[in-house]
Amino acid sequence: xxxxxxxxxxxxxxxxxxxxxxxxxxxxxxxxxxxxVGGAVALFNGRDAExxxxxxxxxxxxxxxxxxxxxxxxxxxxxLWLCFAPIKKTRTDFIVEKATxxxxxxxxxxxxxxxxxxxxxxxxxxxxxxxxxxxCGGTYVPEVANLQKxxxxxxxxxEERQIMFCDEVELGAAxxxxxxxxxxxxxxxxxxxxxxxxxxxxxxNMKEAHVVSLGPRILRADTAAVAALTVWQAALGDWAS
Length: 241
Ligand code: SAH
What we know:
With 241 residues, the chain is of the alpha/beta class. It contains six helices and twelve strands. The strands form two sheets. Strands 6, 7, 8, 9, 10, 11 and 12 form a seven-stranded parallel β-sheet that branches. The chain is elongated, with a radius of gyration of 20 Å. S-adenosyl-L-homocysteine (SAH) binds next to helix 6.
């Protein structure tokens, strides 16, 4: 029997393990999806692959599933961070959702000189990543980091991690990923206001940075994030074999 519904749970998964549901998950499975004892869902926790979970108890406020067999292996994304300056709420949610679907390993909201938003709701964004992983068949959920300053992040930049610096000033210039090395990478996308001259000079001088154009048009930050993830995945990620 195929299993359509997927659930992320923060509990260990192994044969015979029982997993308890939160109130929201119980409401979703038994209220919205109309599932009952004997039904099955796919369970993942980002560490232990994907398991078939049989419903053994179903209630209004909770329920219990039992892991019966492993359905798929854990599939780790490439070691790619998406660093972006948060924009309006729904567009930021969109970026987190798309980064999860596209296979980013970590999502880092950054405060740049011209960042529009001073705060983020980290928990809410993390919940969006979980939902996106449930929906897209991912067995891994990227961590959404807390908001950090770009300058501070660059002060402690790990030297082995290359940067795909998406610079709107380079409109139409050729992308330079074709001959780039594989390994740990980070994509960097600026806010609606773009990067400040200070940030641009600093990034252009970093040996880890590859300045990349996303074509001759200026994209909105959310579009730019998806475009950059696509270009990177096709050239250096798990789309390219
Ligand atoms: N206000 C800026 C545009 C910012 S677009 C201006 O008018 O110049 C938001 C972010 O998306 C940019 O900081 C950059 O990281 C990325 N971006 C958008 N279009 C791009 C392009 N054609 N090439 C490279 N990066 C781009």
